[in-house]
Design the sequence.
């Protein structure tokens, strides 16, 4: 197959996509410290420290040719939002107690909820499908945690500025999910 044909296959292929805020270094450091303490207490599958994010909208499989359109949608959705100060909050969990997803939240959920609302509104307006279940801002730290396997530590907390919303590709072909930012929008 020639180079052009290979490009066309890629162009028509689907990519697993989601939109998320990235996090400032102060928060990344605190999350890594919390994870280090968790490792001493409980077992489960840890999210890589280079993968921490707050999902605003999960799109799933999207044709690759629509990525540029999504980048424009993201820019439009974020245009009315300023960067904001935030603070990490408590631990929480989703799912069954024997295979829980453990996450850390924020003390003030409102600015994240407003961003998610704008992003989701623009996506819906442009005809994109996305998971529209209720939004709770969180950073996943662990998956498949058996909550009965130990006592959870107090999480480390940190303040920082949220100023980046990105379109990510999620590649599940390896041993761990790999997230790549395809487009970044900076909040002014
Ligand atoms: O921010 P978190 O880690 O909760 O859980 C997946 C992760 O979110 C979520 O999208 C983010 C990047 O993978 N996700 C994966 N599959 C999903 C689905 N089918 C999903 N969210 C909703 N529906």
Sequence:
């Amino acid at each position: 197959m020639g180079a052009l044909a290979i490009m066309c296959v890629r162009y028509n292929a689907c990519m697993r996509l989601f939109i998320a805020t990235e996090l400032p270094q102060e928060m990344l450091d605190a999350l890594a410290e919390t994870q280090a303490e968790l490792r001493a207490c409980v077992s489960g599958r840890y999210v890589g420290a280079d993968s921490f994010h707050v999902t605003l909208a999960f799109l799933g499989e999207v044709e690759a040719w629509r990525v540029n359109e999504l980048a424009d949608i993201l820019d439009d959705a974020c245009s009315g939002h300023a960067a904001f100060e935030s603070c990490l909050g408590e631990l929480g969990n989703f799912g069954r107690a024997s295979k829980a997803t453990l996450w850390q939240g924020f003390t003030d959920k409102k600015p994240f909820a407003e961003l998610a609302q704008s992003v989701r509104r623009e996506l819906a307006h442009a005809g994109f499908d996305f998971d529209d279940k209720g939004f709770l801002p969180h950073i996943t730290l662990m998956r498949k945690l058996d909550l009965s396997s130990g006592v959870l530590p107090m999480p480390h907390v940190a303040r920082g500025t949220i100023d980046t919303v990105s379109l990510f590709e999620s590649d599940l072909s390896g041993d761990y999910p790999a997230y790549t930012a395809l487009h970044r929008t900076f909040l002014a």
Notes: Residues 3-186 form a domain with the Cyclic Phosphodiesterase; Chain: A, fold (CATH 3.90.1140.10). DSSP finds four helices and nine strands in the chain.
